[in-house]
UniProtKB/TrEMBL annotation:
Coiled coil residues, start to end: none
Gene behind this protein: nadB
InterPro entries noted in UniProt: FAD-dep_OxRdtase_2_FAD-bd, FAD/NAD-bd_sf, Fum_R/Succ_DH_flav-like_C_sf, Fum_Rdtase/Succ_DH_flav-like_C, NadB, Succ_DH/fumarate_Rdtase_cat_sf
Organism (species): Clostridium aceticum
Required co-factors: FAD
Record-level GO cellular component terms: cytoplasm
Keywords noted in UniProt: FAD, Flavoprotein, Oxidoreductase, Pyridine nucleotide biosynthesis
Task performed by this protein: Catalyzes the oxidation of L-aspartate to iminoaspartate.
SUPFAM superfamilies on file: FAD/NAD(P)-binding domain, Succinate dehydrogenase/fumarate reductase flavoprotein C-terminal domain, Succinate dehydrogenase/fumarate reductase flavoprotein, catalytic domain
GO terms of molecular function: L-aspartate oxidase activity; steroid dehydrogenase activity, acting on the CH-CH group of donors
Protein known as: L-aspartate oxidase
Length: 505
C-alpha cells in the first residue's frame, strides 16, 4: 500500500466534545486510545454550551420533566439510566476539577431552564461547556494511554462481516491513513451546519451519522431536529450566538414587537415551556408582526446581577450595541440539536459489532422527540461512561484480530485517466443546501415542501457523486447532503406532529 500509513490502537474515538473526551478518559488505562479530532481538540459544540448541566436533584421530577418534554416517546429504559447515573458522573466532573458555581457557604448553586419544574441545573456562570471541555482536555493530555490526533478527517469505516475494523482518514494535505482498532466510538456531535442559521460550531456537519449510514448501521429519529428559541438576531448567516435558556430561568420574558408578553397564550409554563413549544410560539409571533425576531427582556434584573451571572452574554450583546441590563434583546429560533442519530442500546453499542456511539450523534432515545434543556451535556457523560465500561469489558472478553488486509481497502482513489468535471463549486452547493433546509425543513414543515427539498437535494447528491474530489471539503459536503436526506426521509414517513417535528397541511 503506497503512501498510505496504517496506525494501530485498541480503541479509536472519533470526536473531542464532552462525550468523546469523557469516554476516552474512562476506558481502562491498559488500552491504547486514539482520539481523532477533525480540527483541534478544543473546537467542538460542547464548549459552546452556556446554560449548564442537569442533575437529578429529584429523580422522579427529572424523569417526568424529560418524558413530558419528549412528548412521552422517550426510551424509558435509557431515561431511567440518565436519571439514576447523573450524580455519580457529575461527581467525576467535580473530581476532575470542574468548578461549578457555589454560594458563599460553598453550596452548589442550581438554576432552572425551560421544561424543568425545579432548580436542577449546575453551571459555571454562562460558560459551562467551555469550563468542562477545558478541564477534560487537560485530563486527556495528562493520560499516557491516550494519543490525540488533530486536523484529521474521518472519511469512512472499514468493515468486515458487520464488524468495524478500521477507519479511513485524510489530513489537510490530502494524505490518507488508516486507524485500526478493536473498538470504535462515534462521538462526532451534531448536524447544525446543514442549516443557514445554527448555534452549532462550523465542524457540526453530521460526519459520524453519515459514516454510520454508509456502513449500514441503524439510524433512527432523524426527523426530530430541535430549534433553540433564543439566538441573538443578526443579519449575518452562519453560526449564531446563543442567548442561554438560563436567562429565562432567571426571569427573562419573551415579548412581541408591541412589548407584550406572549408565552402565556401558548403554554401554562409560559417562558419556561419546552423548547419546541417556545420556538413555534416565537415563529408564530414573528409571522403575525411580519418581523424576523421577537424580544427577550431581562431588564428587571440589576446590572450587577446580569454581569456576574451572564458575563459572556452581556459582553457579546454589548459588542453588538445592546445593553441587556437596559434594553430588550432581539432573538430568533435557530437550529440547535438533533435528537435522532446512530441507534444504540443502553451501553452505547450500535447495530455493528465493535462500533459504539455517544453524545449528540447517537440516538439512545433518552430525549424522545424534543430534548429537555441541559440534558445534552449530562447524556454525554452518562453514556460516555457506559460506553467506556462496555468497551473495557468487550476487549477483555474477546480476542479480536484487528488485522486489515491491504488489498481489501478502497481508498476512493480517483484515477488520472477518469474524465471528471472538477468545476463543481462546493461553496455554492453548501449555500444552496443551507437555504433548502432553512426554508423547507425547519420549525414548521409540510409534505409538499419536504418532497420538494428531497428532490432538490437528491439532484445535488447525484451531481456530487459524478464529480468526486479527494478533499476534506468534498467529503464534508457529501456527509451534509447524506444527513439532510436522512432527515427529510424520516420527516416524510412520520405523518403526525410530535415534539420538534411539526407538520401543517
Amino acid at each position: 500500500m503506497k503512501d498510505k500509513s496504517v496506525i494501530d490502537g485498541d480503541v479509536i474515538v472519533i470526536g473531542t466534545g464532552i462525550a468523546g473526551l469523557f469516554t476516552a478518559l474512562n476506558i481502562d488505562s491498559r488500552y491504547k486510545v486514539i482520539l481523532i479530532s477533525k480540527t483541534t481538540i478544543e473546537k467542538n459544540n460542547s464548549g459552546l454550551a452556556q446554560g449548564g448541566i442537569a442533575v437529578s436533584v429529584n429523580k422522579d421530577i427529572h424523569f417526568e420533566d424529560t418524558l413530558k418534554a419528549g412528548c412521552y416517546c422517550n426510551n424509558q429504559e435509557t431515561l431511567k439510566i440518565l436519571v439514576e447515573e447523573s450524580s455519580e458522573n457529575i461527581e467525576k466532573l467535580i473530581a476532575y476539577g470542574v468548578n461549578f458555581d457555589r454560594d458563599d457557604q460553598g453550596t452548589l448553586k442550581f438554576t432552572r431552564e425551560g421544561g424543568h419544574r425545579q432548580n436542577s441545573i449546575l453551571h459555571v456562570k454562562d460558560a459551562t461547556g467551555k469550563e468542562i471541555i477545558k478541564i477534560l482536555t487537560e485530563e486527556v493530555k495528562k493520560s499516557t494511554n491516550i494519543k490525540i490526533i488533530e486536523n484529521v478527517f474521518a472519511i469512512d469505516l472499514i468493515t468486515e462481516e458487520n464488524r468495524a475494523k478500521a477507519v479511513l482518514c485524510i489530513d489537510e494535505a490530502g494524505n490518507k491513513m488508516i486507524y485500526q482498532g478493536k473498538a470504535f466510538v462515534m462521538a462526532t456531535g451534531g448536524i447544525g451546519q446543514i442549516y443557514k442559521n445554527t448555534t452549532n460550531n462550523t465542524i457540526a456537519t453530521g460526519d459520524g451519522i453519515a459514516m454510520a449510514h454508509r456502513a449500514s448501521v441503524k439510524i433512527r429519529d432523524m426527523e426530530f431536529v430541535q430549534f433553540h428559541p433564543t439566538a441573538l438576531y443578526n443579519l449575518k448567516e452562519g453560526q449564531c450566538f446563543l442567548i442561554s435558556e438560563a436567562v429565562r430561568g432567571e426571569g427573562a420574558i419573551l415579548r412581541n414587537l408591541q412589548g407584550e408578553a406572549f408565552m402565556g397564550n401558548y403554554h401554562e409554563m409560559k417562558d419556561l415551556a419546552p423548547r419546541d413549544i417556545v420556538a413555534r410560539s416565537i415563529f408564530t409571533e414573528m409571522k403575525k408582526d411580519h418581523r424576523p425576531f421577537v424580544y427577550l427582556d431581562i431588564t428587571h434584573q440589576s446590572e450587577k446581577f446580569i454581569k456576574e451571572r451572564f458575563p459572556t452574554i452581556y459582553q457579546h450583546c454589548l459588542s453588538q450595541g445592546i445593553d441587556m441590563a437596559k434594553q430588550y434583546i432581539p432573538v430568533v429560533p435557530v437550529e440547535h440539536y438533533v435528537m435522532g442519530g446512530i441507534w444504540t442500546d443502553i451501553d452505547g453499542k450500535t447495530s455493528m459489532e465493535g462500533l459504539y456511539a455517544c453524545g449528540e450523534c447517537a440516538c439512545t432515545g433518552v430525549h424522545g422527540s424534543n430534548r429537555l434543556a441541559s440534558n445534552s451535556l449530562l447524556e454525554g457523560i452518562v453514556f460516555g461512561n457506559r460506553v467506556a465500561t462496555a468497551i473495557s469489558s468487550y476487549l477483555l472478553k474477546y480476542d479480536i484480530s484487528n488485522k486489515v488486509l491491504d488489498d481489501s481497502i478502497d481508498f476512493y482513489s480517483i484515477e488520472k485517466e477518469d474524465k471528471r468535471d472538477f468545476s463543481i463549486n462546493i461553496g455554492k452547493f453548501i449555500k444552496k443546501l443551507k437555504d433548502i433546509m432553512q426554508n423547507q425543513v425547519s420549525i414548521i414543515r409540510s409534505e409538499a415542501e419536504l418532497k420538494k427539498a428531497f428532490i432538490e437535494i437528491t439532484i445535488m447528491k447525484e451531481s456530487l457523486r459524478k464529480n468526486q474530489q479527494e478533499t476534506i471539503a468534498y467529503y464534508e459536503l457529501n456527509n451534509m447532503l447524506t444527513v439532510a436526506l436522512l432527515i427529510i426521509k424520516a420527516a416524510t414517513k412520520r405523518k403526525e406532529s410530535m415534539g420538534a417535528h411539526y407538520l401543517v397541511s
